[in-house]
Design goal:
Blueprint: E1 2-14, E2 17-19, E3 25-29, H1 30-36, E4 43-48, E5 54-62, E6 69-72, E7 84-94, H2 95-98, E8 104-106
Parallel strand pairs: 1-8, 2-6, 3-5
Antiparallel strand pairs: 1-7, 3-6, 4-5, 4-7
Amino acid sequence: MQIEILKSKIHRVKITEANLHYIGSITIDEDLMEAANIIENEKVHVVDIDNGARLETYVIKGTRGSGMICMNGPAARKISVGDTVIIISYCIMDFELAKKHKPVIIFPKEDNRL
């Protein structure tokens, strides 16, 4: 049996930019991506603590060390600059392996840096 389980989480970062007319996705500082074990084009859930919005999108690399978290495309209407979000990715694995799996969870500082 295969189950979907938490793989990575970036806990509580601030949205620094929004680009409504970009094709879509969320741009994340490459340092944060690396620390959280999230790769470019990976599917993520973005949960907005301020307004309860929840959406799925994919990740693109932001400038390393910038603290950038940018909502792109239509998601920029649901999640605004200054909102605090949690970024979550999941993986599918064998049930028995999942029992031993340890997700990568990072807690960036207020400036979205490690």
